[in-house]
Amino acid sequence: MSRSDELKNSAGAANGAAREICPWTGLEPSGEGLTVDNFLTTMFSTVGNALRRTITQPYAEQFGVSVSEWRLLSLVAHAGELPFAELVIQSTSDKALVSRTVRQLEQRGLLQIRAEGSTPRKKLICAVTEAGAALHAQAIPIARQRQAEMICLLSPQEREGLYLALKKLGQHCLAPTADGRDGGPSSYI
Q1: Which residues does residue 113 pair with via DSSP β-bridges, in sequence order?
Q2: What angle do CA 174, 147, 42 make, to 5 degrees?
Q3: Are 129 and 146 in contact (CB under 8 A)?
Q4: What is the DSSP string of 87-128?
Q5: Handedness of CA 89, 129, 143, 163 (dihedral sign)
Q6: Which residues lie across from 114 on neighbouring strands?
Q7: pLDDT (0 to 100) of residue 173
Q8: Torsions phi, psi for 128 (to 5 deg)
Q9: Does pTM surpass 0.85?
Q10: Residue from 137, 130, 87 nearest 112 by CA
Q11: How many CB atoms lie within 10 A of CB 107?
Q12: How many CA atoms are closer than 13 Å to the CA of 10, on its beta-carbon side?
């Protein structure tokens, strides 16, 4: 079975699932009756893991990098260079994981790390190397194609709705609350 046929078959299964009754339609703010399998966090985690496994992991492995390495390399390659602190923010990953992964990319000659400033707490800058830029240039067309194949399983209306919903949820979660924490349901108050 070709990749295109696999995607069409999974789209057909997804369309059947879409005809199910949405457990969120009449949802009350109390969450009464909402089961764990229908929590946003559960569904995002499940789908996110499946997307990483079926979309990102195959081309990352094809180019000899892990998914984490690819993600950080692509962020830095897109910018040319990024302060380490900004890379942590953009990657939405744990600082320790980003640090380990950046060091691995540096050891492989794909990223270069340099310190700026004369204070004891120097600002670390991550820059893509020539080898890193070359790997990114080879992989990014495949990455874009694989992402587009999955996005195109959705109708234009579904794409727009999903995109806008994800942006809205992301903006809400990242908006600081009155006490300076990231957003959440309590930030409505």
Answers
A1: 126
A2: 50
A3: no
A4: HHHHHTS-HHHHHHHHHHHHHTTSEEEEEESSSSSPEEEEEE
A5: positive
A6: 125
A7: 87
A8: -75, 140
A9: no
A10: 130
A11: 9
A12: 16
> Can you spell out the DSSP letters for the chain?
--HHHHHHHHHHHHHHHHTSPPTTTT--TT-TT--GGGSHHHHHHHHHHHHIIIIIHHHHHHTT--HHHHHHHHHHHHHSEEEHHHHHHHHTS-HHHHHHHHHHHHHTTSEEEEEESSSSSPEEEEEE-HHHHHHHHHHHHHHHHHHHHHHTTS-HHHHHHHHHHHHHHHHHHHS--TTSS---GGGG-
74: left (phi over 0), alpha (psi -120 to 50) or beta: alpha
| Both tokens assigned to 143 | 């990455």
Cα–Cα distance for residue pair 2/165, rounded to 1 Å: 32
Each residue's pLDDT tens digit, 17-70: 555 689 999 899 999 989 999 999 999 999 999 999 999 999 999 999 999 999
Q: What percent of the chain has pLDDT over 90?
A: 71
Q: Which two tokens stand for residue 131?
A: 């080898």
Which residue's structure tokens are 């794909």? Answer: 110
N-terminal to C-terminal alpha carbon distance within the chain: 52
| 139 neighbors 159 (Cβ within 8 angstroms) | no
